[in-house]
Amino acid sequence: MNRGRKASAAAAAGALAIVTILTAGGSPAAAQTAATTDESITHDENPRVPEGAAWTEAYFPSSDGSGVELHADVLRPAHLPAHAKTPVILSVGPYFAHAGQTGPEGWDRVGPSARFQDLVDGADLMARGYTFVMVDLRGFGGSTGCLDWAGPGEQADVRAAIQWSASQPWSNGKIGMYGKSYDAVTGLVGNNLKMNALKAVVAQEPLWDMYNYLFSNKVPRPNVTGTPAAYNSIAVMPAMADDSDRYKANALYEASHPECLSDNITNNNNPDADSAYWRARNLAKDAAGTRTPLFVTQGFIESNTKPEDMDEYLTNHRGPERGWLGQWDHVRGNDTDGDGRLQMGRAGWFDEVMRFYDQYLRGTPPSVTDPAYAIEDSLGHWRAQKTWPVIGTSYDARLSTGRYVDNGGASAAAAESRAVDQGRWDMERAPRMEVLSHAEKNAAGQGDASASSFWTWSTPASQALRITGTPRISLKASTSGNVMVRLWDVAPDGTATMFDENVALIERGGRISFDLKSTDWTVKRGHQLGVQIGTIDSNRWRDVPSGHTIKVSDARLTLDVQNPRYDVPTRGDRSPFLDTFLTANTTTLSDIGRGTFPLRLSRNG
C-alpha cells in the first residue's frame, strides 16, 4: 500500500501480522502462513486513524478449512511498545470496509472504518490500554468468500477472529466482543461458540434468531428480498484507490463468484423455520448452556431488530448478564437525538461498558455496583432487576370464539398496507419507524363491526400490573389462511395503544401456537387488555390473503405478569422514542366489552 507517509516511531519495532500466502490462482492457502512486520500508521500521519491509535492491517484464514481469507484492521495504543500485551475488544461484521459502512462515504484516503470510533474515543480505549480489532466477515471489505447471514461460514469467521486475536503477541489472550445490530449478532454467535478466550460480549440491538428478520411464522416480511439484496450491494462495494493490491483483489471476490449473490437471495427466501438452513441460524436455541458474560441492549418497541426470541436466548444463557432494556428504537447506548437527549434515556453507557470489560478482561473489580438489568417500562420509569423477565405469575386467559374474513383488511387498508418500500433494507438502513396506518386504526375502531377481525376484552385491572416476558397465543382455526394477533392497552375512555403483535400462516385447519414479541408493558389500574384476532392488514408483512372466512375457537393467551409495586428504582430518563411510538400507535376504540377474562397478579402479589 502506498500510504505516502513514514512509519510512526511507535512502530519502529514493527507490529506483527499473520499473512496468508496466496496460491498462484490467487486463492488463499490457509495452511501456509508466515509472520511479517507491517508499518503502523498514527493519527498524525492519517486523520482517519483515531487519536492515540496506531493502525495496521492483517489477513488470516477462516477456521472452516474453506480457504476463505479474512481481513482485519487493528488499532493499538500508539504509546505502547509493539508487543505490549493488552486485552482486545473485537468486532466482526459486514460494515468495516475502508470505503464505508453500507456504501462509499466519500473518504479521500484509505483508513480504518469509523463505525465504532464513538467507542474508541468515548471510552478512551487507547489511553486505557485496549486493542481494538475490526474483522470483515467473509464476502465483505477485504475478506474473500460468500456472505452467509450468520450461518456456519460466518460462525467459522467469528471463531477464527477470536482465535487470531487471542494468539497475537500483543494480546493478553482475553477477548471481549462489541457491536450493534449485525456486529451484535456476531457477538451472540461468539458466545454460542463456547470459546475460552472470549471473556465478555456487548451486543446492542441484535437479532436473536436470524429467521425472524425476514419471516414471521412463514409469513414474509416486506424486506424478505430487500435485505439480502442490500447486503449483496455492501459485499460488492469497491475498494479505495489507495487500498493494497491484496485488499482490492479480495474485494473483487464476488465478481468471479456471482453465485455468492444469487445464493444469498435464494437461501434467505425460505419460509420454513424448521429447515436445516434456518436451524443453523437459530441463535436463541444454540445459546443453551453458554456462559460468556453478556451485556445486551434491546428496545421493546424496536422497528428494526425486534425483541423476538430474546427471552429464549437469555433463558438458555447461563453466564453473568447485564442489560439495558426499554422503550427505544434501533440505537446505541450513547446515541443522542437532535436535542441532545440520550436515545435510551440512561447516562453512562461507556462507563458501564468499560467497568464490564475491565472486570472480565482484566480482572479489575468494578468500583461502582451497576444493576444487572436496568429496565425502562412503558410509563418511562426505570427499575433495577437481577434478571429479566421477573415473573410474579403466569396464566392462560381464555379468549372468545369468533370469526373473520382473511381479506387483508378493507380495500383501502389492503391498498395502504401493500404500498410499502420493497427496496434497500439492511440493519443499518431499515425504516426507523413502524406505525399503524390510518386504515388500520379505522379498522380497529370499528371493533366487531369489522369483518376482518374480532375482539376479546379483559376485565378492568384492579391494580397496576406489568405484562412482561413473551406472550403466547394458541388457537384452533377452521381453515387455512393468515392470522394476526394484537394486544391493546385500553383506557376507560376508549383511548387504546397497540403495544404487541405477531402473525402466522395457517397452513391448514387445526391448532396453531406462536409467540408475540417480548414486551415490558405496564397496565394502569382500571385499564383493560384488548386482544384483536383477524386478518393481516399491516404493511409490516407481505402476506397473501386467502379470502377464507376463518372461525377461531379454543383460543388462549398465555401472559407473564409482574407486580410494579416491588420495583427497585434506578436512574434513567424517559426515552424520547416512547412518546413517538405512543402517538403513532394510539387510537380510540368503541363498543368495548365488560371483559371475559381477568388481568390478575398472584395472590401474594
Estimate the global geometry from the Cα principal axes.
globular
Q: What helical percentage do the residues reach?
A: 10-25%
Classified in CATH, the superfamily of the largest domain is Galactose-binding domain-like
Estimate the strand proportion: 25-35%
For the termini, the CA-CA separation is 67 Å
CATH fold category name of the largest domain:
Jelly Rolls
Rg (CA only): 25 Å
Strand order of the largest sheet: 3-4-5-7-6-8-9-12-13-14-15-26
Low-confidence stretches: 1-37, 411-421
What is the tally of helical segments? Answer: 15
Mean pLDDT: 91
Number of strands: 27
Count of domains: 2
Largest sheet: 12 strands, mixed
Secondary-structure arrangement, i.e. CATH architecture of the largest domain: Sandwich
Q: Which structural traits does this protein have?
A:
single chain, about 600 residues, alpha+beta, Rossmann fold, Jelly Rolls, 2 domains, 12-stranded mixed beta sheet, 6-stranded antiparallel beta sheet, 15 helices, about 30% strand, globular, disordered N terminus, Galactose-bd-like_sf, dipeptidyl-peptidase activity, hydrolase, Xaa-Pro-like_dom, CocE/NonD family hydrolase
